[in-house]
Amino acid sequence: MFKNKQLTRRLQTNLHRVDKLILLIVYTLVAIGTIFIYSATKEDPKTQSIIVKHIFWVVLGTGTMIAFTFYDYRKFEKKILILIGVSIGLLLLVKFAGQQRLGAQRWIMIGPFSLQPSEFVKVMVILILGAFITKNYKNGINNILDVIVVFLPISVITVLILIQPDLGSALAIIFIFLSMIFLYGVRLRPLIVMGLMACVLAVPVYMFGLKSYQKTRITTFLNPEQDIRGDGWNIVQSKISIGAGGLTGTGIFKGSQSRLSFLPEAQTDFIFSIISEELGFVGSASVIILYFLLIFFILRPSKVIENEFGKMILYGAASVFFFHLIVNVGMTMGMMPVTGKPLLFLSYGGSSYIASFMIIGLVQSVKIHVD
What keywords is this UniProt entry annotated with (predicted)? Predict the structure, then answer.
């Protein structure tokens, strides 16, 4: 009886500590996403199936978030080798038993559903880096050798993702890595030196390291109008969609780009274009503000919690949402190459939804397990 009272009291305390503002923002984004996924697919005969699957992913993601919320995040700190092993195992499974689409092998089939393991691996990368850095670099990351050694635990993971090939997810992992070490307190000099080295290597990497379709994405990004009916079609149509929205938009479910199927994959890569067309600048700006508020509330506890591993999780979580926001919105405006990165909680996609809810669960776990 006494144990039951303790458990109940502990549960009440944890529920009280859950950040309700983060949940409010997340489910506001989910609601907006659901509306515009329907808007983007309502002319598709499979729209009912798409919406049913979308709701399934939201429910499953919510359950996953709850599980991660009440699991003490500090237990992950001692499981770094397991996390590395699981990450590599998932990516090897994709390599040898994955499904190939559009020239890339990134998915595994589970019944009628396809999952993209690299989305879940990003969550594990946050935990791996957080545990490794806080254990081995209590005095800071001070030179190029330190930066290289910190990257080693996720180096095989990054290479396996590049092999798929999935340049977008690899860049996301590198961005998470750089963001986490920067916020942790790396000296700027080694980052500047490595940045200059990257600039020098950019040309040979472009010439010999990228596949033809990846080069096409870059040239299309620089000048989409050169092949307006081919590779530049998506970006040009996305710009038209955003421009058509004006200040207040054409109205929900009244966007011509999605209704007339001018914009392929509107419910995934180009969901922001549909929002911009139907809600205009006011609506699209409001969505961006919601994301920045989400990032702000994720980072806010880092100023008061003492656990360094917890702080690193918050840094990594914020970097994931910031990367996807900048890349996806920039892509729809023609300011970034098309990389296929979704707008988290808005774009249709099971793997990204579950992984995003995992990250929010970790953030909530950091907030409630402060004793």
Answer: Cell shape, Membrane, Transmembrane, Transmembrane helix
Distance CA 179, CA 142 (A): 15
Task: For residue 152, give both structure tokens.
Answer: 């080693």
Cβ-based neighbours of 246, under 8 Å, separated by 6 or more: 280, 281
Distance, in Å, from the CA atom of 80 to the CA atom of 133, rounded to the nearest integer, reads 11
Comparing CA positions, the residue from 163, 90, 162 lying closest to residue 124 is 90
Q: Tokens at residue 221, please?
A: 């990004």
Residue 114's H or E segment, with its range, is: strand 113-115
pLDDT of residue 221: 58
Q: Provide CB contacts within 8 A for 145, sequence distance 6+.
A: none
DSSP codes, 120-163: HHHHHHHHHHHHHHHHH-TT---SHHHHHHHHGGGHHHHHHHHH
pLDDT in tens, 154-195: 999 999 998 877 888 899 999 999 999 999 888 878 778 777
Beta bridge partners of 105: 100
| Tens-place pLDDT, residues 311-322 | 999 999 999 999
Structure tokens at 255: 């966007």
Confirm if 176 and 323 have CB atoms less than 8 A apart: yes
Cα distances from 298 to residues 40, 56, 325, in angstroms, run 30, 26, 15
Q: Order across the sheet with 99-101: list the strands.
A: 99-101, 104-110, 113-115
The answer for residues whose C-beta is within 8 angstroms of residue 183's C-beta and 6 or more apart is 315
User: Pick from 250, 249, 264, 248: which is nearest to 338 by CA?
Assistant: 264
Rounded to two decimals, the pTM is 0.89
Tokens 């879940």, residue? Answer: 120
Distance CA(277)–CA(299), nearest Å, equals 31
Spatial distance between the Cα atoms of 315 and 168, rounded to a whole number of angstroms: 20
34-57 burial code (b ≥16 CB/10 A, e <16): bbbbbbbbeeeeebeebbebbeeb
Structure tokens at 4: 């039951």
